[in-house]
Amino acid sequence: MRFFILLLIFITTNFFAQQNEDSLQIRKIYSYHLTKGRTYANLRSLCKEVGARLSGSKQAVKAIDWAKQAMIKAGVDSIYLVPCMVPHWVRGKKEKCEVNNNNKTETLSVCALGGSIGTPVNGIKTKVIEVSSFEELEKIGTEKIKGNIVFYNVSFDKEFIHTGNAYGKAVKYRSGASMAVKYGAVASITKSMTTSDNDFPHTGMMKYDSLVKQKIPAFAISARGAEKLSSLLSQNKNLEMYLYSDCVTLPDEPSYSVVGEIHGKEIPNEVIVVGGHLDSWDLGEGAHDDGAGIVQSIEVLAAFKKLNIKNKRTIRCIAYMNEENGTRGGETYTESASKESKKHIAALESDMGGFSPRAIGVDAKQDTLTYYKKWQPLFEPYYVFIKQGGGGTDISKLKGIPQFSFEPDSQRYFDFHHTADDVFEHVNKRELELGAATISSFIYLLDKYGTYTK
Amino acid sequence: MRFFILLLIFITTNFFAQQNEDSLQIRKIYSYHLTKGRTYANLRSLCKEVGARLSGSKQAVKAIDWAKQAMIKAGVDSIYLVPCMVPHWVRGKKEKCEVNNNNKTETLSVCALGGSIGTPVNGIKTKVIEVSSFEELEKIGTEKIKGNIVFYNVSFDKEFIHTGNAYGKAVKYRSGASMAVKYGAVASITKSMTTSDNDFPHTGMMKYDSLVKQKIPAFAISARGAEKLSSLLSQNKNLEMYLYSDCVTLPDEPSYSVVGEIHGKEIPNEVIVVGGHLDSWDLGEGAHDDGAGIVQSIEVLAAFKKLNIKNKRTIRCIAYMNEENGTRGGETYTESASKESKKHIAALESDMGGFSPRAIGVDAKQDTLTYYKKWQPLFEPYYVFIKQGGGGTDISKLKGIPQFSFEPDSQRYFDFHHTADDVFEHVNKRELELGAATISSFIYLLDKYGTYTK
Prior knowledge:
eight-stranded mixed β-sheet; alpha/beta; Glucose Oxidase, domain 1; 16 strands; about 25% strand; Aminopeptidase; homodimer; 2 domains
């Protein structure tokens, strides 16, 4: 009994001593990012010196070089590029959307959706059929839809707390063109995927159903535009719309993901991945999506170096190419990783914007979650939960290892996501830095204690 | 033993059943605020139809009527006004701050601090002595300071996670005029209390030390202006500055706090207070400070009414007058409450902006905190902690009862606080609404379970 008590005291003391050591180290990590980190300066540089960087574009090539330089500055031990062939979609001339309202031409804010074909050179002029769901589309049927434009006026579900869930529910309508063409539509317009009511159209990937031969141009309309259009249609069912887009898909282009790492000091053969995606949509500057994730991931490595943290395992920062319209970088990195002698043990992605940290999402069942949940008290001074969630588009290709996501506050993300307004000015310095600090701290614990094993 | 086990099962089952009932009710509360609430519409109306509402101003009178109408619309059972005499400080003509740099006049962004006297009608023109602390001021001493302007160039401490703590540390320099005049200074300029580096000067209350007879004009300079000024001074120690302000303190004015309540259905004699302050600074629209707290508090009552929640206790919304420069509303409300037959059992204040909810702060010792911490699992789906903290300037006058604060994310608060940029457009609809939902949910639990008793 006495031995048992002594053992208990030892274990408890040890536990608290470790908690205290970790708590101090995490405090240092946060202080580093808030006072010395280059996260914000790097984001300014990526947004203003490189700017929008859609896969296959010249700016994407520039971004690859930018990432290499930023990783070198961060002090990584080695850098390499992982090649991939990426889609090369080009928007071309500015889109047009006009309706005639009482002999007055009104312009509505639209943009072509990524992957869409363009309209004929003279555009499309015809009537608009508004629907609020695929079910309604089916009910209206071919007779009324044939030769017309289908307008998917589907709003975000406001009841979700995490706006990403509302996005997940509505985003299928972005690929509604193939469904519309089945009923004879000549174009589709989808209300932008947003919680806001502003006038920016939100682009994003649309896919044509491979089983449907015919393709029609697909557009997104701003939330304000959708409201206006719906209101005009309620007054005049025969309203005619003129639509024009100039986009085209060119042959695939060679591109690269950029990988930088700091070697493990004890178990260098085990790799922990932290990353985001380097490509962005062609509108805006890709500041929140996903410049934030890129500069945070790079700064994680910088923090380990600058704070002289002796990481046991290899920590690898990946600036993935082509998350937005193909995930080719995620695929080829995973292929390349499968041929390595090193073993991946965990991966974390930051791809939800540079807002204040709210949680680390763990892609795991309850017993596994309990393991990571034990770290939550260390994050409470920073208002961060450890919770179910996790993963990310790029790292999802790395099967069979624990996946984590950095979860910033989601309320403003879809104000900017995929728009011309996703610019550096909408990222708050401290919010971005706190994100980098949260990720660094979680990677620190993952490296120190390893992942859950049964 | 069997009885004990049965009792345990009963207690446990009961506990989980209650948790589940509460969880469903809280989900309804959040849904109400996100889909049907008037929080955002009310804030637009307060900001755009009333605007800035400094105590003693015509707009403050208008705000009182606005609050009454908004409470009536919310469906409260009764409304009354609690009178108070408030300070009446008037800014007057726009302030001026100019320096001569290589024969070029440069204008720096300044504003008078609330409560300051004005400069002589022709302004002040003299040299500037920069200090980074009161200690440095003392070290420099009378010989160099006499007849000059003291410039407190003190930055926010970036290492604090909650920016309010950095504010708490730096804010004493806003009242640095009396310290400066001891060494013969003729005016003081304080770097704005902000985490940002923009060009808005931040006003706020300054107090003259009652033991120091002489008063000098006190200004705040924007963060960018402070950087510019410091840079110019480093090149030219004899730089001359021209300062002008027109402000004056008029006799106190009669004013009111607005109180609305919904009666308790079981213990109407017990009162739970939820509130914010109705007055704001004269620059901007008082959107975050504290329009947000006002519209949230009003909407708490509306939620109880619209969701038909049978509150046991009386829930009272207080729109306090004069938090910014006197706390007279807090004082007279407390006086009036002490004469009531009803008993106050708890108070919560929302006065940290309309940002995403992070926590409910509890002003309590560990054992008391544990009681409220039990509710945290109910808030985890909304990413909200229950943590130590609590209180607020207005409710702090209500001594001897548990005090709570609504803690939104603090990172952007001091970008806007007390500036011309604290406008409706900088409040995100969902963030504001989630705040109202968090407060309503916590008040719901306080009402249902009561406060901690030993």
